[in-house]
Write a structure and sequence with these properties.
There is one protein chain. By secondary structure, the protein is an all-alpha fold. It has one domain. It has a two-stranded antiparallel ribbon. The radius of gyration is 25 Å and the shape is globular. This is GDP-mannose transporter.
Amino acid sequence: MVYTPPNSDERDAEVNLRLAEKDPESPTMEKYDPDLSKSEEPTETPASRNVRFLIWTILNVTSTVGIVFTNKSIMSDPSFKNRQVSLACYHFFITGAALWIASTRFFGVFVAKQVGLTQMTPIAAAMAIQVVLQNLSLANSSVMFHQLARLLLTPAVALLNYILFRIKTPRAALMPLVLLCSGVGVVTYYDSLPSADNGSTTSTQGVIFALTAVCASSIYTVWIGQYHKRFELSSMQLLLNQAPISAFLLLCAIPWTETTPAVSAVPTSMWSMVLLSGLLACMVNLSQFYIVDAAGAVSGAVIGQLKTCIIVGLGWAWNNHAVPRQSVMGIFIALTGMSI
């Protein structure tokens, strides 16, 4: 239940009303207007806030799960198999446009705050690199392994914080982190073994891309905290500064890293998937910021755990061959460690 304490205006109105009842000739009687006080009270009730939070949570879970499988379908198509940079650039462009619209006076979701190009370029480049590596990991791995590998971000950030800032991880968290890493290691080994019928589900390249993506994401995550403190930016303000720069950097890299597919060879259904991917990316970013702002990082982490379980479960069903028992055991070990 979300509870908001009464504000100072409401308390002053109650005091004036009581004084007026005791002394009808008091000047406070002229200052207090019951109808005016009621009109100034917030109309949103705790119940309506909870309903809105539930709606945003459902949108966040649905869009996060949807974008993973949508991107996997896009990158499974021969025309888009090697278009990870273009896909990331497209997502950054759509996200930046959506955040700019949300910051306008008409919507007023947040107030934009501009930071210099020189200061924002390093973190924007880190953001672009880690997203491209994630796309490469997804293109060369199974959905199940890709999502489980992302769990390594937690121990990686803990290790990086210790190396850079000497921030120690509590002893009670060390064993769960060991379980988490062990479970991911088991899944990595058995999911990358060649299968008799379909070959390797996760290629060696997929494992390399997944691990390098975790390293890049850990650096980016640590930088986010530093930029929040240094420039006093909210998550939306920071992303609005980053997204256009990241899109521009990737746009410059496209001619050197990719070849343009023949438009006539791409089916219409695939272009629809690309459009859906952009819309889902916007929903993921906007809903995630609302959840963290409304309920805090702990609730965001719990919802993230739910999304991981759903994606891993659907990825399990997505596989067109039997999952080894050892991989199943590794999945449960990793999720148990993350939950603890």
